[in-house]
Structure formats: C-alpha cells, structure tokens
Amino acid sequence: MARPINKTDAAAGGLFIAVGVLFAVQSMGMEIGTALRMGPGYFPLVLSGVMILLGAAIVFTAFSSEDEPVGTLAWRGMMFILPAPIFFGLTVRGLGFVPSIFFTTLIAARAALKMSWLASLILSVAVMIFCTLVFSVGLGLPFRRFGPWLPV
Amino acid sequence: MDLISNLGLGFATAGSPTNLLFCLIGVILGTLIGVLPGIGATATIAMLLPITFQLEPVSSLIMLAGIYYGAQYGGSTTAILINMPGESSSAVTAIDGYQLARKGKAGTALAVAALGSFFAGSVATLLVAILAPLLTIVALKFGAAEYFSLMLLGLVAAIALAHGSILKALAMTVLGLLLGVVGTDIYTGTPRFTFGITAYADGLNFVALAVGVFGIAEILRNLEGEQDRTVLTTKLGSLWPSRADLKAMIAPMLRGTLLGSALGILPGGGAILASFASYTVEKRISKTPEEFGKGSIAGVAGPESANNAGAQTSFIPLLTLGIPANPVMALMVGAMIIQGVVPGPNVAAEQPALFWGIIASMWIGNLMLIVLNLPLIGLWVKLLTVPYHVLFPIIMAFCSIGVYSVNSNVYDLYAVAGFGLMGYVLMKLRCEPAPLLLGFVLGPLLEENLRRAMILGRGDPTTFVTRPISATLLGLTVIVLIVMLLPQVSKKRAEVFSEAE
C-alpha cells in the first residue's frame, strides 16, 4: 500500500484543475457561439477543458513517481516583498512619488535578515534620491513628487 | 546589391549619436545584469520596458536588444570567475571556464569567451540580414490559418526547452493563454474574467505579469537561503590568449556559431539550447575528450559562440513573423506593440529604417561589448562583491516604478504582487514560468487568428489541414509533441537538464 506519491506534482495538478474549472464556469456564463462564429466564451471554454485534462494527467503521473520535497518557503520574503508594490500603489498618488518610493524600498529591505535598520534606512534614502533624479527629473515621468496627503 | 544598401540604411540609423548612446546604455545594463547572478535578462527588460516608451521606437528596441545580448556576455564572466552562471545560457561555460580560472588562466578564458562571442555575433547578425528578408517574403503569403498553426508550433516547441515535466509545461502554456484572454472580447465587447474590475478591461498588464512572474518570484526564491558569494580572487592572468589557445578555439568557434545560428532560428530555441548542444558536440568530436571538465579551451569557445549566435538569430522569427521564440522576444513583441509597431512581415517593408537599424545595431553592440568586457573586466569583477540583500530592495523599487509608469494604473501594482505570489507558488511546484509568458503574449493573437480562420473557412475546421503551409506547420507540431513524449527522448532531455544544474 505504501506507494510513493509525488505531493508536489499532485498539488500542481490539483491547482491546474481548479483554475481550469474556475475559468470553465465563468466561460459558460458567456455566449459560446458556434465554430463558425465563435462567441466570447468559446476559446476560453476549450482552453479550460484542455487545462482540466492536463491537470488530471499530472495528478495521475504523481501517483507513480517518487516524492520530491517542496523545500523551504521564503515566508519572510513573502511578508515584506509582496506588500512593497501594493504599498507603492496605495500611496504614490496620496503621499507623492518621493516619500512613497522611500517607504517601498524600506519595506522591501526588511525582507533580508542581514539588513540592519540603519542599513535599510541608508539604502532607502539613497534609492529615493537616485530614483527621483533619474525617473522624475531625468526622464521626466509625470509623477507628483509630493502628494496632497502631506501638510505643506 | 540590396543587402548592401539595406545595411547602409541600417548603419546610418544605428550610427546616429542618440541610437549609439542607447545601444551603449543597453549593452552596459545587459553586462551588468548578466554579471550579477539572480537577475535575469527577462526581468530586467520587463522592468525597463515602461521607461523606453518615452524614446523613439528604434532607440528603445535597440536598447532592449542590447540588454539581451549584453547579458549573454556578462553571464559568462560570472560563470568563469565564480562558477555560477549569471545567465542560464552560460551554465555550460562554467564547467570548463571555472577550471581554467583555477589554473590561473581566468584571463585567457574570459578573452576566449569574448572573442568567440564577438565572432559568432558578427556572423549571426549577417545571417539575420540575409535570411530575414527572404522569410518575410514567405510570411507575406500567410493567412489566418497559417498564423494559427505557426503559433501553435511555436508554443509546443517552446515547451521542449522548459525544465522538468512536459505535462506541466503544457499546462503552464494553457494557463498563459487563459490569462491572455482576460479583458474585453474584440468581436463582441463582452468583458471576460475581469471580476468586475474595470481597470482590467484592457487585459492584464503584460509588464506586471512579466515582472511578477520573473522578477519578484525570482527574488523570493533567492531569499529562501541567504548566502554570500565567494569571488575567485586569484589573479586574472594574461588577457591575451597564446597562439596555441587561439588555434584551439578556431574550429569550436566556427562549429558553435553554425549550431547556435541554426538553433536560434527555431521557435522555442535560442541561447540555452545552443550552448548545451555545442558543448556536447565539442566533447564528442574532440581528440582529447578527457580535457573537458578540466579546463578545455574548446569547452569555452564552442558554447560561448553558440549562445551568442543563438541570441542574435532568435530575432529572425520576431522580425519576420512577429512570433517570439523565447520570453525575451515575447517582451520585445510587447515593446513593439506599445510603440505602435505591429510585429510581423510588414515591418521590413513599412519601416525599413527600424528593421535594418536594429540589425545593424546588433553588430555595433557586439563591438561595444568586446571593448567593454576585456579592458573593463576588473570593474565587473568588483561588482560581484555587492551583496544580494543590498540589490533586491533596489530591484523592488525599480519594479514598482516601472510597472506603475506604463499606464499610471495602481491596479497594475496590485497585479504585480499577485503575479509574484503566483509565480513563486508555481516555481515551488516545479512549473517553469517561460511557457506561461509565451502563452500570455500569443493568447490573444491565437484566438483572433483562430476565429478569423474559421470565419474565412466558413466554419470548416479542415481549413487548417487543406492549406499546404498550415498543414505542414501542424504536422511539425504533432511530430515535436510525439518526439518529446517518446520515453528515450524524455530521458535524454532529463539528463541534459540535470547536467545544467
């Protein structure tokens, strides 16, 4: 009974099936049309079907191969790296480009255990100055340097 | 001669001070990111894409191309000096290059790599100039059915290059196609899969997807285990190869160039496959195969020539058919579309200055690279000592600015975080991201041509097999699929990729 299961493959296959089902359900809500005049739902529905089949095939092969461990996950990385662009998106209009890019860099820098607070601060200030000079002044991208949220 | 007048136009375009400057910026940036392990050409081009919108189309494409082949040069420096490929295509160079460096012949290895690359780059550029116009003539005969079949072939061939399971690579391609479908339907105007967010009605942002899946996911993976790199601090030795070394490199260089040029043209081919193939060939025909792995000149000259030749000729399908052969070329398609240039056979006829300017700039760029790389090698070596934890916050800042500046759409920044997470999860599940990006770029084109072909064929699906070019392409697609799934081939494929790691 102790057949090896490749959990990584099983998870990948399951994920593909789930995504396929999600897209298929959504496609059915749209006009499918005929092969001659395809509606908006036709092509995605076909693709979803292929995706579900491929997912099932991956799950199937997972039952006949050795398990490969997924390995360590970069939790700290995910906690700080992923919010950085979101923070930039939330504040670039309100705070303005200069303070927003400073905090974005600072958040990202916290993902590394090796960076002290001081080093992160120095790096963020340097990046802020560099980016402002290059993107805002040099390339003239239309960013507001300081936004309306700041009391001036 | 047409070729000469065309090349004359190209050099006149590429030789303008502005374009020379952007070519230089491109190759410097390319070398830089090639030298630094952990940042690939794909992620860098994705990040810089938005910044190039301000430029003229020619200048921006020249610069992006420079980044791509510059990275091939830079990658070999890292491979030779610290036994770690800066770019995946230089993985093979690390085998013998690092051994040469340990013997105190780092300078020779670097010079052989640079000279081989320069020679291959020059030959391949000439090939692009000769072949591209010929292919363009064929491509002009293509209808919707042919385009559909060709894209299908490209997608399937690209899978041959993905690491690991073929089934997973296929699934990643389909996922890419599905993500490419998100947005407003071109025929009926129905919004599809936008979950009611109007910001996604124009489709998911291509830059956001590329930066997330290639840039952010890669950073997350590098953060799993923080390590410092050890740079080989021994002396570089003489830069100039001895007469014997030069003699040893000529034949492998010629063979590598030939092999690389041929593999680069194939859809899904390109630099990585070329360098592996060249190394295998050199080892097999060498009179002293036992030297391979212990510091063979041929083991550096062959693959280095091959990967650079492949990098140049992979522009052929892009410039003639508008079909990207690899993720970097997919980004170039994105860049062209945003610049208002429709990639495809019409580029050569309608925008000769752009077409020939890019080709000429490749040769100029290769010349710049050899000047940059040999005398300035010490500078690049210094760069290797910059620790990763200083680099990635800077990359994150650039990513955020780059993605936002495409359309000043904050939803694109939220999408970047989402794609970063998705890319990381998929990477942990051992799914390669390259087929996903190709699928994403080709998805809308594939659907449009499918629908158009079906309307033109009056709803008869046999239109794909009764038109000879389309039938040939579909036949090739089936053959590629079958060959890949053959047990012997998939075993051999696994071996090749495990050697790379």
UniProtKB/TrEMBL annotation, chain A:
<keyword id="KW-1133">Transmembrane helix</keyword>
<feature type="transmembrane region" description="Helical">
    <location>
        <begin position="42"/>
        <end position="64"/>
    </location>
</feature>
<protein>
    <submittedName>
        <fullName>Tripartite tricarboxylate transporter TctB family protein</fullName>
    </submittedName>
</protein>
<dbReference type="Pfam" id="PF07331">
    <property type="entry name" value="TctB"/>
</dbReference>
<feature type="transmembrane region" description="Helical">
    <location>
        <begin position="12"/>
        <end position="30"/>
    </location>
</feature>
<dbReference type="InterPro" id="IPR009936">
    <property type="entry name" value="DUF1468"/>
</dbReference>
<feature type="domain" description="DUF1468">
    <location>
        <begin position="11"/>
        <end position="143"/>
    </location>
</feature>
<keyword id="KW-0812">Transmembrane</keyword>
<keyword id="KW-0472">Membrane</keyword>
<feature type="transmembrane region" description="Helical">
    <location>
        <begin position="84"/>
        <end position="109"/>
    </location>
</feature>
<feature type="transmembrane region" description="Helical">
    <location>
        <begin position="121"/>
        <end position="143"/>
    </location>
</feature>
TrEMBL record, chain B:
<feature type="transmembrane region" description="Helical">
    <location>
        <begin position="109"/>
        <end position="132"/>
    </location>
</feature>
<protein>
    <submittedName>
        <fullName>TctA family transporter</fullName>
    </submittedName>
</protein>
<feature type="transmembrane region" description="Helical">
    <location>
        <begin position="169"/>
        <end position="187"/>
    </location>
</feature>
<keyword id="KW-1133">Transmembrane helix</keyword>
<keyword id="KW-0472">Membrane</keyword>
<feature type="transmembrane region" description="Helical">
    <location>
        <begin position="20"/>
        <end position="49"/>
    </location>
</feature>
<keyword id="KW-0812">Transmembrane</keyword>
<feature type="transmembrane region" description="Helical">
    <location>
        <begin position="257"/>
        <end position="279"/>
    </location>
</feature>
<feature type="transmembrane region" description="Helical">
    <location>
        <begin position="464"/>
        <end position="486"/>
    </location>
</feature>
<feature type="transmembrane region" description="Helical">
    <location>
        <begin position="354"/>
        <end position="380"/>
    </location>
</feature>
<feature type="transmembrane region" description="Helical">
    <location>
        <begin position="199"/>
        <end position="220"/>
    </location>
</feature>
<feature type="transmembrane region" description="Helical">
    <location>
        <begin position="386"/>
        <end position="404"/>
    </location>
</feature>
<dbReference type="Pfam" id="PF01970">
    <property type="entry name" value="TctA"/>
</dbReference>
<dbReference type="InterPro" id="IPR002823">
    <property type="entry name" value="DUF112_TM"/>
</dbReference>
<feature type="transmembrane region" description="Helical">
    <location>
        <begin position="61"/>
        <end position="82"/>
    </location>
</feature>
<feature type="transmembrane region" description="Helical">
    <location>
        <begin position="315"/>
        <end position="342"/>
    </location>
</feature>
<feature type="domain" description="DUF112">
    <location>
        <begin position="20"/>
        <end position="438"/>
    </location>
</feature>
